Amino acid sequence: MQHRQRCFLLLAALGCSAPLSADEIRVAVATNFIEVMERLGEDFAAQSGHQVRISSGATGKLYAQIKNGAPYDVFLAADKRRPTLLDEEGMAIAGSRFTYALGKLVLWSPTEDYIDADLRVLKKQDFRFLSIANPRTAPYGRAAQQVLEKQGVWAVLRPKMVRGENIGQAYQYVFSQNAQLGFVAKSQVFKNGVFAEGSYWQVPEPFYDPIVQQAVLLKDGAAARQLLDYLRSPAAAGVIESYGYGVAAGSH
């Protein structure tokens, strides 16, 4: 499996001790949410003493891994289609599925004043490469395709596109300036109210289907259920929003 792995084991500070029944929770996370989940995993581990082991990748590939028996306890997808399929296929714990974040798409370049509100850079094709995630496996890639189709430039720009296996790779192409600009998750270039250096266009949400990111429990267990409860908490919602995501009604 091609994915990153992170493992957090933080015991509660200030004199608190880990519970005797501390467990490891294996979480499959869509690439766009990896940094947020690392932060949330640290916070949850500090409170609970449980380990959170994170594997990340494109939602479509993680779904395929789960179908093939990958030993994950929790799946945080970048869409709702795959968690719904797992529900319908009997591979998820009934009643556990919920929306943990609402994704947002941004066209970004590390170069100042490169992207403007009129999108002249796209219309003039004044660049060598445009990075997007693979629309077949990554929901953010599918959203990027919808935006380009709405702008009437999908077909003409296809020869200039480089496609990342997931949104993390699509971002890296731009960050490394192998591509001059690209469609990325807002969370990759926004934190605590500030955008990364460069230039950007926040894509209007009506330009693409809502990126409803859902979580589902794959294997029942007290520790995994505690993690999902934490992800629905006001504290977690505050962290999620600080990275530029929307949260579902009732998360606060």
Structure description:
This protein is an alpha/beta fold and 252 residues long. It has two domains: 4-102 and 210-242, Periplasmic binding protein-like II (D-Maltodextrin-Binding Protein, domain 2), CATH 3.40.190.10; 105-202, Periplasmic binding protein-like II (D-Maltodextrin-Binding Protein, domain 2, 3-Layer(aba) Sandwich), CATH 3.40.190.10. It is built from nine helices and 13 strands. The strands form three sheets. A six-stranded mixed beta sheet has the order 1-3-2-4-13-5, with helices on both faces. Strands 8-7-9-6-12 form a five-stranded mixed beta sheet. The chain starts with a strand and ends in a 10-residue tail after the last helix. Residues 1-22 form the signal peptide. Keywords: Metal-binding, Signal. This is Molybdate ABC transporter substrate-binding protein. Belongs to the bacterial solute-binding protein ModA family.
